[in-house]
Amino acid sequence: MEIDFLQYQVRNGDTLTSIASRLGMTGEELKLFHNSHCQRMDKVWLDNLNDVKNILVPTNFKTETQREQERKNKLPAELSDSFFAKTYAVNETFETPFESPVTIDYIIELNLRKERNTAQHILSYSQNNFKSNGNTPDDKVSILSITCMKSIMPLEFMIDELGKIIGFADHKKITDTFSKQRKELEDFYIGEVSQNYMDTFERSIQDESFFLQQLKSTLLFQTLLPKIDWFQRKKNWTEPFYFLQNSFPVQCELNIEQSNDDDNSVLTILNGKITELCTSQEITRGIKLKESAPEPAQGNIVLEYTTHTKNKNLLQAKASVLLSHEEAFIHQHHITITQG
């Protein structure tokens, strides 16, 4: 067992306070330390050390300020090009009370680079190897949906210094790319259903704010892009989250927990619950009414981030959202994003 204290021989005139001050401690801290390591009969209770021969003192005492600084040094403090790995495996599960759970898996590829002379970054994003419940989709609509999204990738987002999406780097490039790709898609995907889907998809991506909100409201992007200052927080705070894609963000009260069980990583857990007065029906419909909510929605969100202590990059991210009404769940969504 590692010994983290020494036995100090008390001299004339020594007090708990005088000894502690030489160690950078308070007298109370030294008393607590000594009493927690000594035999029962050797405990001390008074500042004067009359008839006390020895005091156990720590070999590597750290003040609360030093411990707090060490904690912060192990966590991301700013967005850097190395925060993301190049590749992550994503697993998502959707559950409702009326349908069987659906699980989807896919791979995302990321590249984050800082823009010159600004505090902003550009995040390049693409996804592939899509599977549903363990199988590659084989129905025509699903295949067409995946193909349309792949045709405009990689998507490039502008990311602010906190790590949140603030817009597309070049929206016109997205729409122009699909216009060119559509000609080839129409040669392969024929029929009225395919044409209608491509019309709807093209209208969606042409509306820049609508398309951006579609992506930002997914649990994937909310989880993948944490605000960097989350990692440095200690007190409770309020943050808006989307509980359903294409709905509206709901205010949640968050608290934070952190653990450092090994030298290489830190686990940061954010627990949140809905505090905004809106109903679950409003959230599911995506329409917020002006009237006060007679039966406010119940909802929880949990976000977990595992980051490397040295290079501060994201090793894994997890999230779960639960939306319920009168204790009965309406919607659950879980996501795990793992490096490699």
Describe the structure.
This protein has 340 residues and is of the alpha+beta class. The chain has two domains: 5-61, Membrane-bound Lytic Murein Transglycosylase D, Chain A (Roll), CATH 3.10.350; 87-339, Lipovitellin-phosvitin complex, beta-sheet shell regions. It has nine helices and 13 strands. It has helices at residues 16-23, 27-37, 64-73, 140-151, 171-188, 192-206, 208-216, 219-224, 280-285; strands spanning 5-9, 54-58, 87-96, 99-114, 121-132, 155-159, 165-168, 237-241, 250-259, 265-274, 298-308, 314-325, 328-339. An eleven-stranded antiparallel sheet has the order 7-6-5-4-3-13-12-11-10-9-8. A two-stranded antiparallel ribbon has the order 1-2. Helix 1 (16-23) crosses helix 2 (27-37) and helix 4 runs parallel beside helix 6 (192-206). The relative contact order is 0.11. The mean pLDDT is 92.
List strands and helices in order, with pairings.
Blueprint: E1 5-9, H1 16-23, H2 27-37, E2 54-58, H3 64-73, E3 87-96, E4 99-114, E5 121-132, H4 140-151, E6 155-159, E7 165-168, H5 171-188, H6 192-206, H7 208-216, H8 219-224, E8 237-241, E9 250-259, E10 265-274, H9 280-285, E11 298-308, E12 314-325, E13 328-339
Antiparallel strand pairs: 1-2, 3-4, 3-13, 4-5, 5-6, 6-7, 8-9, 9-10, 10-11, 11-12, 12-13
Could you name the key traits of this structure?
single chain; 340 residues; alpha+beta; Membrane-bound Lytic Murein Transglycosylase D, Chain A; Lipovitellin-phosvitin complex, beta-sheet shell regions; 2 domains; eleven-stranded antiparallel beta sheet; two-stranded antiparallel sheet; elongated
